[in-house]
Design goal:
By secondary structure, the protein is an alpha+beta fold. Helices cover about 30% and strands about 30% of the residues. The protein is globular. The protein starts with 11 loop residues before the first strand and ends in a 6-residue tail after the last helix.
């Protein structure tokens, strides 16, 4: 159903470049990682390539392929160390629009070719000048915080492995707090925080009492809100933290400049 193996050779893909006035065909190289996990219920393809040709900025694009792919388009996330968050969102929107056109044909190869070939200078220029418009991009650019409460974790190693993967792919800051209550603290763009929650609810992240893989069905959202968080320069980090008292939990929130968020969920914690 997913036509990726034919294009993959030792972890790398080679894509044809765009047609040009020259009859000579060029080849562009893209670093590719393919994750296949039952918990993901599909494939996660992460590709690093240049935008708009070999001299363009390097972009990391993640495609989460639904089991019904290509009937269902992939979920797409985009990041780059040399582009702003707004510019990445503008490129992602272009890919989403292109994916809708390509359904129901296999499209990952075409989407990467599109990135390598299309002239995105106008998109990037407009974004730098603040002309992106008031659509979803403005909302997605907002910094967002969410605190989730989990009932239990049976397979900690499996759970943490998936949380770490999603943290990196979605470029979030995530803290797993284990104590009287199990909490997940999420920080990042609103879109990425929402996507993380979606993955947590729809993926087989844990095991049940019989040892079978299962989804997270007892997760509670304690709070979601906009925040002015500006923690450090790294857009992605995951840590496991333990606490035994409200004071210790409060300290973890203070480290991330989220005192007000803690005050709103303090009552659910037990000393």
């Amino acid at each position: 159903m997913v036509d990726l193996r034919c294009a993959c050779e030792r972890g790398r893909w080679l894509f044809n470049s765009c047609p040009s006035t020259s009859r000579k065909s060029q080849r562009l190289r893209a670093d590719t990682h393919i994750f296949h996990d039952a918990a993901q219920e599909g494939l996660m393809v992460q590709i690093q390539s240049a935008v708009g040709g070999e001299t363009g900025p390097i972009l990391t694009t993640s495609f989460h392929l639904h089991p019904l792919y290509p009937t269902e388009p992939p979920r797409i996330s985009v990041s780059s160390p040399s582009l702003s968050r707004g510019q990445c969102l503008a490129i992602r929107q272009k890919l989403v629009e292109q994916a809708r056109v390509l359904v129901p044909e296999p499209m990952v190869h075409q989407l990467v070719q599109y990135l390598q070939c299309v002239d995105l200078s106008e998109v990037l220029r407009r974004n730098e000048e603040g002309e992106v418009g008031p659509s979803r991009s403005a909302e997605e650019e907002q910094r967002w915080a969410a605190v989730l409460m989990l009932d239990h974790i049976r397979s900690l190693k499996r759970y943490v492995r998936l949380l770490e993967r999603w943290t990196q792919q979605l470029q979030l800051t995530v803290r797993l707090l284990q104590g009287p209550r199990i909490l997940l603290l999420l920080l990042g763009s609103r879109t990425s925080v929402k996507e993380f929650q979606h993955l947590l609810k729809t993926s087989k992240v844990d095991v049940d009492s019989a040892g079978k893989k299962c989804k997270e069905r007892m997760m509670t959202v304690l709070i979601e809100r906009r925040c002015s968080w500006t923690h450090g320069s790294s857009p992605s980090s995951f840590e496991e933290r333990r606490y035994q008292s409200k004071a210790q939990a409060s300290q973890i929130f203070q480290e991330l400049q989220l005192d007000q968020v803690y005050q709103q969920i303090e009552d659910v914690l037990c000393d």
